[in-house]
Amino acid sequence: MLSAYSLEDLKENLQVNNPEIRGAEEEYRRSVLDYKDALAGFGPKVDFQLAGAYMVNPPVGSLSVSVDDIISSVEWPAGVKPARSGQYIKVFDGMENTLYSFQLSLEQPIFTWGKIHQAAGLYKAVSDIQNVKYQNTQKKLETELETRVTSLWFLKKISEVLEEEKVYADEMVSYSEDAEKSGMLLHQDVVEAKIKTKELEIALQGVNEQINTQIIELRRITGVSSLQIEEIDFEYDEKVFQSILSEDRNVLMEKALSDDSDSVRMVSMAQKVSEMALKISKNSVYWKPDVGLQVSMGYGGSRMPLMETNWLRKDDYSLNLSLGIKTTVWDGGKKLRDVSRSLSNVESARINKDSVKSTLRKTLSEQWNTCDVSEIKIEYQILKMETEESKIKQQEVMFQNGYGSKTDLLSAKMDLCNAKIEKLQHELSRACALMTVKFLVYN
Question: Are 35 and 124 within 8 A, CB to CB?
């Protein structure tokens, strides 16, 4: 027995398996790490270095002083000068084979004209954009999923009606062939009946290809590689979308263009990022120095710290405090051009926001127009269906009483099927348009 997948089940698989959603999630995670890196700029940077060496032949060997040289350097009274002894006194044992050096350094920004704070704000805004993009990707693909499942539902209904119409067409071919043999119909009538059957076979094949395409796409976006049409448990509920049609379109348009909608919110946040980048550029121009503190502690000796004999007396350690000031005096005008470039980016962001709103207005207007046209065509097909049903009843009565022909009755039934198919096609077009409206307004 095949497993059943409801729309919610497919959405859950979409969230877990879809590579586009997972990619957007990873981009958001990286942006959070970038923001944390920017926050780290407020605190100090601490580095530690350790170096050790073993010298087989140390460059400085042992040092000894001749006792006779020392005696000779002293002015002795006459007749008191000691005799030469030929002895030596060792004053330095020579360098040891090991040599170690340690250094701990700390760098702390003190004043940067707000660049660190502004950079952190910029990365936070970028992270927020990635978060909205991630959520919007989820909503967009869920809408695509719902659209494809809905399309599949309508295509199945169209396929069923085509199968029914083909039964009538086959029956007409069989009846026409029998009527031709009895001389009641011409051969041309038989050929026309066969052409109609062949047209239905082509139409049915086209619908089946569309169904297969929808199944393949559903497998791709949900990650359910073995998904079959029989496994999808979905019923189209027109009431869900009729509620959207009943709402004030001007209110829906304002909602889609508000700063709360994902599309407008992303471009608004991008504009904010451009404005922050402009502030950073202005605070990086000439004669605006950055001030920082650097502290370094070091030790170098033949043994590990605190283990060397008389290490404190040897004064092998160091402690340095430095206050640094750095500013750019001139770089050929590059920083000024950076400011101009940032101003241009801000203006581009504003233009992009206007463009997005214009596109939203155009898309919503087109979808509303599609809904209106589809609604009229649906009403038209409903009237046609009523007419065809009346014709069928009349043809059945006439055929039973021997006044009508079976071909007329079958033609009326086929015309009713065509009206049903047309109605389903327009309902599908309206449903897709309403799902697009729903995505643009409520996401």
Answer: yes
CA atoms of 273 and 18, how far apart (whole Å): 29
Dist. CA 386–CA 415, nearest whole Å: 11
Task: Report the DSSP beta bridge partners of residue 46.
Answer: 106
Task: State the Cα angle at 289 between 324 and 328, rounded to 5°.
Answer: 105
- Do residues 161 and 418 touch, judged by C-beta distance below 8 A? no
pLDDT in tens, 219-246: 999 999 999 999 999 999 888 777 888 8
Token output for 343: 């101003």
> What is the average pLDDT score of the chain?
89
Task: Answer whether 15's CB lies under 8 Å from 21's CB.
Answer: yes
**What is the dihedral sign for C-alpha 383, 384, 385, 391?**
positive
Contact criterion met (CB below 8 Å) for 176 and 193: yes
Residue 212 and residue 229: Cα distance in Å, rounded? 9
Do residues 163 and 190 touch, judged by C-beta distance below 8 A? Answer: no
Place of tokens 């043994």: 303
* Residue 364 pLDDT greater than 80, yes or no: yes
- Do 399 and 405 meet the contact criterion of CB atoms below 8 Å apart? yes
